[in-house]
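FAQ

Q: What does a record look like?
A: Structure on top, sequence underneath. For example:
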């Protein structure tokens, strides 16, 4: 892939507030970019008839289409035909893991939630026939509504893809059930003309007993429950990917929790590279909830008056600066090659990130960190994705898009992709391109009522 000349960030681009869609913002941004000497096009003929802006758009839009289609291919090919469950991970070439591999036929309910949303995107973009997409959604919803083992409406984190049996002695997971529900409700809205999909999705959501997961705490939800030992002692009590969980719990029309739960969890602040923001772990915690909930233009109307969209935007910029600060130790990090979040590594799976510095960081780059950030900061995330693809090509970019991780310093490239990492990339790209995942999920009336209840409402732009 050629044509992404220059390596200066577009942080000063003014994406006009009058643009009514991300597609318009995309074009508007590249109009400015085309006029910038720091983002010049490669040399071309003096007799060129196509405008520089059109040339750049013609290069970038096919890349995003290709990246998205490859990510969707994972959810199409790695979903079981009898249950609809999506595998937690697969080989980069699409081949199944050996039967002796620990991940053989292990599905993730979070990955399945991303997969349900992926089916909506595929139907909308005509990558998959709408009737086929509906059939796949019905199959998955029937499994969770009528066959999957559940406890008070909550599901086990890891399941056998073919049978739905519990795997790895996993917990009944509150956050992973929430990510599944996000996909269920997205499908309910996208396929709202299908009465069976609406009925099944509603049944799955309304059956979840959110107060049960409080385990007698007045406000804070538990991480989960195991039949062998009961509730997990850890609670969702500090900022993380928890926002989607609490919104769904407060929104429940049948088993809601108190709206005060939203303000009960801690919001630790950090300042890095001149940006002060709430954080608490790897970069993915700033991405997952935003994949479905449209926080743009919303701000809490009571203390601490947080703008969560801006918070994640600040986190992305600070994270990029953090990676650049590591470049003296790991020269593989550059202005457009950056990103560290929970991922595979040469030494196994690591829940790393920063700032602050995680001692395990070894120079590995995790593409979904930039991919999942596209919906916040396209001016730095898009050049990063492009640069990775252009510089490393087929070594890291294959059947399902980017490998889960690679190390430009040592030459190591992961042999696997992970469903939730491909999922956050796919949804972020779609929100950047069209905003439609936000549109579909936010159309669920329960969600808008919950945001009103916690006073996370639209504010007038300055």
């Amino acid at each position: 892939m050629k044509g992404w000349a220059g390596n200066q960030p577009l942080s000063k681009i003014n994406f006009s507030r009058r643009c009514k869609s991300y597609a318009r913002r995309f074009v508007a941004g590249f109009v400015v970019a085309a006029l910038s000497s720091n983002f010049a096009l490669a040399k071309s003929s003096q007799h060129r008839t196509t405008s520089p802006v059109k040339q750049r758009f013609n290069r970038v839009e096919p890349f995003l289409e290709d990246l998205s289609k490859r990510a969707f291919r994972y959810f199409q090919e790695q979903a079981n035909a009898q249950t609809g469950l999506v595998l937690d991970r697969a080989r980069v070439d699409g081949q199944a893991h050996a039967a002796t591999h620990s991940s053989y036929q292990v599905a993730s309910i979070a990955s399945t939630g991303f997969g349900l949303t992926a089916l909506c995107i595929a139907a909308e973009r005509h990558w998959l026939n709408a009737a086929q997409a509906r059939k796949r959604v019905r199959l998955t919803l029937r499994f969770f509504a009528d066959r999957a083992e559940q406890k008070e409406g909550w599901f086990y984190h890891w399941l056998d893809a073919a049978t739905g049996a519990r795997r790895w002695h996993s917990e009944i997971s509150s956050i992973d059930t929430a990510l599944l529900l996000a996909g269920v409700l997205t499908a309910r809205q996208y396929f709202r003309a299908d009465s069976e999909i609406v009925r099944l999705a509603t049944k799955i959501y309304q059956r979840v007993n959110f107060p049960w997961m409080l385990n007698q705490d007045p406000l804070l939800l538990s991480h989960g429950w195991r039949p062998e030992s009961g509730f997990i002692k850890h609670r969702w009590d500090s900022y993380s990917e928890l926002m989607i969980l609490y919104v769904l719990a407060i929104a429940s029309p049948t088993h809601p929790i108190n709206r005060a739960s939203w303000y009960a969890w801690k919001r630790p602040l950090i300042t890095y590279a001149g940006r002060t923001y709430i954080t608490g772990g790897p970069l993915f915690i700033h991405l997952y909830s935003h994949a479905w909930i449209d926080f743009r233009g919303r701000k809490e109307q009571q203390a601490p008056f947080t703008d969560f969209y801006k918070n994640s935007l600040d986190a992305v910029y600070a994270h990029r600066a953090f990676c650049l600060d590591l470049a003296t130790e790991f020269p593989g990090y550059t202005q457009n090659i950056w990103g560290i979040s929970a991922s595979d590594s040469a030494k196994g799976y690591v829940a790393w990130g920063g700032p602050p510095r995680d001692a395990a960081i070894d120079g590995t780059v995790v593409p979904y960190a930039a991919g999942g950030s596209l919906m916040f900061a396209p001016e730095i995330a898009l050049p990063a994705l492009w640069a990775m693809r252009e510089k490393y090509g087929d070594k890291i970019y294959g059947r399902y898009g980017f490998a889960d991780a690679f190390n430009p310093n040592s030459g190591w490239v992961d042999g696997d992709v992970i469903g939730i990492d491909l999922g956050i990339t796919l949804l972020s790209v779609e929100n950047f391109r069209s905003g439609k995942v936000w549109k579909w999920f936010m159309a669920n009336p329960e969600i808008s009522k919950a945001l009103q209840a916690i006073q996370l409402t639209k504010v007038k732009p300055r």
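Q: Is there anything notable about this one?
A: The longest strand covers residues 269-272.
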